[in-house]
Design a protein that fits this description.
This protein has 417 residues and is mainly α. The protein contains 15 helices and no strands. Helix 2 crosses helix 8, helix 2 packs parallel to helix 10 and helix 10 packs parallel to helix 13. The longest helix is centred in the N-terminal third of the chain and has 58 residues. It starts with a helix and ends with a helix.
Amino acid sequence: MTATNARRAPSRRTAMGALLGVAMGMANALGYLVVMLLSRPLGPGEFGGYTALSTYGVLLAIPAGVFQVVVARRLSGDDPEQPTSAVRPALFTGAGCFAVTVALSPALTGWFHLPSLWAPVLLGGMLVPMTLTGCFQGILLGRGRLRALSLLYLVNAVSRVIAAAACAVVGADVTAVFAAMLLAGMIAAAYGAALCWTDLVRLPRTARLARELLRSNSTLAAYVALTNVDMLLARHFLSAHDSGGYALASTFARAMCWGTQFVALIIVPRMQGSRPTRTLLRASAVVAVIGIVGFAVVAMSPRTWITVAGGADYGSFGHLALLCVALGVGWALAQVWLFSEMGSDTGLLGNLTWAVIVVEVVAIAGVWHDSPTQIVLVCLAGALVVALSGLLRVVVRHQATAIADDSVIVTADSPRA
């Protein structure tokens, strides 16, 4: 590599990272558009069933995110482990989730008051292309093809918007909506396969992944629980009015997580590089800066922002929206450290996160549940514990490595007997 190319490489990586951030931001915005398109034609009753079943789907979609991280880790750096597309275990995992959902479809239909058994069956079918798409995203991320990865995120989001718009036009019910979303997922998976075709042909379709998948699934599940347990507790302990305000205000926290997720994804393949500590510190700094900007924007007029989001009935929750932005920054920082742990195939921070979740639940259920503010503050403290623990662990490990390197130098420079 020439000196000019060496100087251009960091700039190109930064530009591609920014492109991925914009693409993921647009994909998240299109996700909100899907909700807007479906909420009115379905009506409150059916839309509630759609949301409940979709939440169940989010839990079973965790392996898709794990396959993305594991495949990217295997394809990046000088990892001695076997590179793989992981298509075969992903296919088996998606099929297993589908079988579980089909078996549970009578119970799910009753629990969520769905009009037909076919709704959960179709949702289960979505998990197969979704898990395969996770592999394709991992291949693109591991190969550093961030432009192609950005396109895949957008194709996935746009196909869902088109499906939702078609359902809104024809007045589809919940079952038809999930049929349309299954078709959208298949289109995204087909596009991902086309982008990755060369690697899919050359790479082994399987490898020994059980230990990595189990550990990473636990870590990602811990993050999902960390960012969702507050809503369940708020719904249980607060009044209907306060829990509704909390639900809207908490979207400000989740928007902060989703808006910075591209940073967490970019660092996964770089954890195999020679300077992971610097990568992590820079990523945390980027997230912190984005968080500060977001907090400053909302702080200008919190009441206005939440009124724009939900209407005048939510105006009194403006201060809560601002607190939720701070909570979202804490979650986003924790996200960076947890994704870095999946990228380096370790599980200590994930285990700590589960412990933090238990403490949060006990603290809120036992004492601090009298107001939305108390719940936010408890969850913010938990998020900061995870984030600061990740920072402390990396700093200590970096210092230990530096001391070890110095010891080697001193030994090498010592006169021989």
